[in-house]
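Example (one chain per record):
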Amino acid sequence: MKTLFYLFVALASFLLVLPAAATAVEYHVANQITLTWDVTPPNNAGEKIEYAIYIAPSGDKSTPVKLWQGPLLEYTVTLTDEGLFIFGLETIRLIDNNGTFEEVSKAAIGWSDDPVVAPAPFGVRHYLPPGMGSGFGVK
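Predicted structure:
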């Protein structure tokens, strides 16, 4: 009976660790990254979908910065600050109101560190270049 109990504890421990390992966020070291996503079709004729890209420090989504909004399915981010960052994707629904498209609703921001949104969760680690050397000469 004790053996069965220890086997159950070992199996339960393994199962608890497995999902965490499978959804770990991979941080790419880069100063520029091109984000891509799948198309969301409009619900009705006379509507269109746009997307917005956000950036936030990893671990702090409380004040995301909107980088871009448009109909394209990719956006290139060039980082200027050093740090660890994740990206958000927001889908926006617009309707034609007498020739002018206006926003009527939008989805919650989906984040790159969330396996529901990004099957391979990711972020970017950006390092600023070091200062230029000085005192360069011949000895």
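Caption: The longest helix spans residues 2-22.
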